[in-house]
Amino acid sequence: MKRSLWLIPAALLLLAPLSCKRETTLDVMSYNIRLGVANDGDNSWENRKAATPSMLRANKPDIFGVQEAYDFQIQYIEEQCPEYKALGVGREDGLSTGEHMSIFYNTGKIELVEWGTYWLSETPDVPSKGWDAKCFRTATWALMKEKQSGKPFYYVNTHLDHKGVVAREKGLALIAEKIAAMNPEGWPMVLTGDFNVFPDDPGLKGVNALMKDARVTAEKTVDTPSFNGWGAEGKVIDYIYYAGFKKCKTFDVVDTSYEGIPFISDHYPIKARLVF
């Protein structure tokens, strides 16, 4: 009798590590950094750039996509936050000219497998402007691996046109088509970006059919707008979508002030915690 009583706690000790197994999570962020060449007066890049590395150190995303970033802004982040490496090209020439839709990843946690860029146009393989767009628009994609678990996942980052209605609709449709085609294995997928559309826009139909909106489906979420217009207005136009993950635990809008700087950008970064 005494022997069997001792066996019960021993069995519980053996089971404890299994019941306490840690979740594998991915902390994702989307951040329209506001182009560094814009004449924004007090909000110009040189006056607010110190807020960006402070924000990244405070929030510690594993991977994040930026929009509107010029090469010198990319370089500044890599210099100030050397744990991150960037992938991306300039949208004007496919090299360094113009805005980058770059993906940054923490090299201590994430391993790069392959990556590329395509243009949101009728000729996606070459630098080009699509449909009624005012600007060249791109999507940067990467196949990654979470190092500790070895789990692969795809990440896509983009910025839709701010003027062309057809370009936004066709651009989102192209992204949805590419996402469906690039991932026959059904691995987890993340899509981030400034879509320049509201959540009820019909152009989101194709993406909504494939993926979930983190703002809508997170266990804990907020309704804070992502676009702030330097404090003049609030709009929800930035998104984190996901598929193939077990769940989204949290979604948040990073509206904190860093380094005493009122606005980190005319957009607030948005972030989500996904569970593999």
CATH H-level name... which superfamily? Endonuclease/exonuclease/phosphatase
Task: Tally the beta strands.
Answer: 12
Beta content comes to 25-35%
The major beta sheet can be summarized as: 6 strands, mixed
Number of domains: 1
Q: Identify the quaternary structure here.
A: single chain
Radius of gyration: 20 Å
Q: In the CATH scheme, what's the topology name?
A: Deoxyribonuclease I, Chain A
Overall outline: globular
Order of helices and strands: HEHHEHEEEEEHEHEHEEE
Reading off the top of the CATH hierarchy, the class is best stated as Alpha Beta
Strand order of the largest sheet: 3-4-2-1-12-11
CATH architecture assignment name: 4-Layer Sandwich
Low-confidence stretches: 1-19
- Give the averaged pLDDT, no decimals: 94
Number of helices: 7
| Secondary structural class | alpha+beta
Ends apart, CA distance between termini? 44 Å
Helix content: 25-40%
Describe the protein.
- The structure is a single chain.
- The chain is an alpha+beta fold and 276 residues long.
- It has a single domain, classed as 4-Layer Sandwich (Deoxyribonuclease I, Chain A).
- The protein is 25% helix and 28% strand.
- It has a six-stranded mixed sheet with strand order 3-4-2-1-12-11. The chain has a six-stranded mixed sheet with strand order 5-6-7-8-10-9.
- Helix 5 links the parallel strand 7 and strand 8.
- The chain is globular.
Topology:
Layout: H1 2-19, E1 25-32, H2 45-48, H3 51-59, E2 63-67, H4 71-80, E3 84-87, E4 103-106, E5 110-119, E6 138-146, E7 151-159, H5 165-182, E8 189-194, H6 205-210, E9 212-213, H7 214-217, E10 238-243, E11 247-253, E12 270-275
